Amino acid sequence: MSTSRKVVAVTGASQGIGAGLVQAFRDRGYAVIANSRSIKPSNDPDILTIAGDIADRDVAERIISEGLARFGRIDTVVNNAGVFVAKPFTDYSADDYSNVLSINVDGFFNLTQAALKVMEKQGSGHVVSITTSLVDHAIDGVPSVLASLSKGGLNAATRSLAIEYAKRGIRVNAVSPGIIKTPLHAPETHEWLAALHPVARMGEISDVVQAVLYLESAGFVTGEILHVDGGQSAGH
Fold first, then answer.
1. What is the pTM of this model?
2. d(CA 111, CA 169)
3. What is the pLDDT of residues 65-99, one digit of tens each?
4. Neighbouring C-alpha atoms within 13 Å toward the C-beta of 124
């Protein structure tokens, strides 16, 4: 087993941004630990798939322990798994609240904590979380309190962890996208969603992937919330 090649763990890896990240990191020679609830085994020996809900602490710990057993190190974690429920605030149910917070917050906490213990021993590492531009720029017609509550917390945690671990060789950053063209958005909504961005288009999966890869290579950048939102957070 070689431990010289870099290893990345990606959650929400079976489709959309997560699948794009898996392919992009493989194209750059990384070994990948790919997680989602429904992910299937890969024929690629350099992709280890771990099926399960990241909100379950046992799943998070398996991602790290089985990744270490297979590849010998953990260099980067991309907290991509997330859920978005758009409802008026008073229509949210207790189940909506529990579901959003468990995946968006518990999942981040579980995996990041397990990964940082390994990265600290290594003396290096990088954590990137995918949040949302709605945290900084709420949009009339897109009710998003639970997204802002959970992903806004991740933005704050990103800055806090960046400072806590800055002297230990570990960087912590986030990518804050606008609305990205993924299977979550039906084609008939695309025109309306595109108009919510000053650049008059939705983001592409590749836009988020490129931002993550930039942060991965930017050794002097930590505590950054990188907006990839077509100008949305800047104003209208």
1. 0.95
2. 18
3. 999 999 999 999 999 999 999 899 999 999 999 99
4. 8
